[in-house]
Design a protein that fits this description.
385 residues, chemotaxis, six-stranded antiparallel beta sheet, cilium, four-stranded antiparallel beta sheet, Chemotaxis protein chec, bacterial flagellum, alpha+beta
């Protein structure tokens, strides 16, 4: 019995010694990483020497590709890039950049008149998001204004964050300049606060109408105000939308306002928004137009006189023999068609001038519908001469 006990104790002692040797060797060869009670990542350099390395929260977020502020609204990296690799690449609308640049200039003047204060408006960014991702990323508390584009028969969202809400209220109610607005968290917005924010949104939407007017006349009308994103669903969760963020600064106060326009809302004017510039028409060059008109009028073309035209079955043509007669279903005084290629220019009567066959024009020439005004003027001037 004593021998069995001694063997068990000796085996246990050897096992512990081997474990200590293996753990010390692995720690000596490479560093180890652990997470402490404070939630920070602690990285040790090992036995070769080196200070303890602690990763802060920002470094951890960058490593994993997550960002609390812009979780679904920015270009992600790391693990987040792998997760969002299935995101659809939405088409870019160049004209929107011009529209919202114009809106920034208009808002700078309108908000200065509205607040009687020095207001600076800047365009933060324009990018495409999924509708559900945007609703989940809205920092609360906030006021969401659902507005309708009357001519486009669809809706959009204008979101005002809490910083801008309290700053506008403080400015409009006579707050002192240079003092940061005091936030009162944990309570709903009052009727007066909602009314003041609604007036500011009306000013913004009026400028948005003026910014879109060169492309397409539109009327933005506020439908309702919401404080819960769940009640602001105007599109399907997976639908694409354009998100525009504006930064509004009033000395040391300010905030941001976001305008969300689903692609379904912009669909009626999508062709115009895909243009590089308004109208996408180059400036007229009268010298080039005159030279082109001169060369066109001097160009030589082949004109054919068609006496008769009909379709016959191939079997009938194959059965023709010498001496067969083809009956042409036309009268002696029928008009002859004058063609240039496949286009019929005019009609006339066939006759003879000396020893040559001639065509007398009976109808005016058919002008193309796309003839430029400059060409018509040159043509009329040439005929008068």
């Amino acid at each position: 019995m004593a021998g069995d006990i001694d063997q068990d104790a000796l085996a246990a002692e050897w096992g512990m010694a081997l474990e200590e040797q293996g753990s010390s060797g692995s720690d000596a060869e490479q560093g180890w990483e652990s997470v402490g009670e404070d939630g920070m990542a602690h990285v040790s350099a090992g036995s070769k020497g080196g200070a303890e390395r602690i990763l802060n929260q920002e470094e951890i977020d960058n490593l994993l590709g997550f960002s609390i502020e812009d979780l679904a609204l920015s270009d992600n990296g790391g693990i987040r890039a792998i997760i969002d690799s299935a995101m659809v690449a939405y088409e870019r609308l160049p004209m929107l950049d011009i529209v919202f640049d114009r809106l920034v200039r208009l808002l700078t003047t309108s908000l200065r008149n509205f607040t009687s204060d020095n207001v600076e408006v800047s365009l933060d960014r324009i990018h495409a998001v999924r509708f559900a991702d945007y609703l989940n990323s809205i920092p609360l508390p906030a006021i969401l204004s659902i507005f309708k584009a009357e001519e486009w028969d669809n809706f959009g969202i204008a979101t005002v964050d809490s910083s801008l809400i309290y700053s506008i209220i403080d400015v409009l109610l006579g707050g002192r300049r240079g003092v940061t607005a005091i936030r009162v968290e944990g309570r709903p917005y009052t009727t007066i606060e909602m009314g003041l924010v609604k007036r500011m949104i009306e000013v913004i939407l009026a400028d948005a109408e003026a910014a879109f007017r060169p492309i397409s006349p539109v009327t933005f009308k506020i439908d309702r105000l919401e404080t819960n994103p769940r009640f602001a669903a105007i599109s399907r969760p997976n639908n694409a939308a354009i998100l525009v963020r504006f930064r509004i600064d009033m000395e040391e106060r300010g905030g941001s306002i976001e305008m969300l326009l689903p692609y379904a809302t912009l669909e009626p004017i999508r062709d115009r928004l895909m243009q590089t510039f308004v109208g996408e028409k180059l400036g007229r060059d009268p010298v080039w137009e005159g030279h082109l008109a001169t060369e066109i009028f001097q160009a030589r073309t082949h004109v054919e006189a068609v006496l008769y035209e009909n379709k016959f079955p191939l079997r009938k043509l194959m059965n023709l023999k010498v001496g067969d007669t083809l009956v042409l279903d036309m009268k002696p005084d029928a008009l002859v068609k004058v063609r240039c290629g496949d286009e019929t220019l005019t009609e006339g009567r066939m006759g003879r001038v000396g020893d040559k066959v001639a065509i007398r024009i009976q109808k005016p020439l058919r002008r193309g519908r796309t003839t430029m005004t400059q060409f018509e003027q040159i043509s009329s001037g040439g005929q008068e001469q």
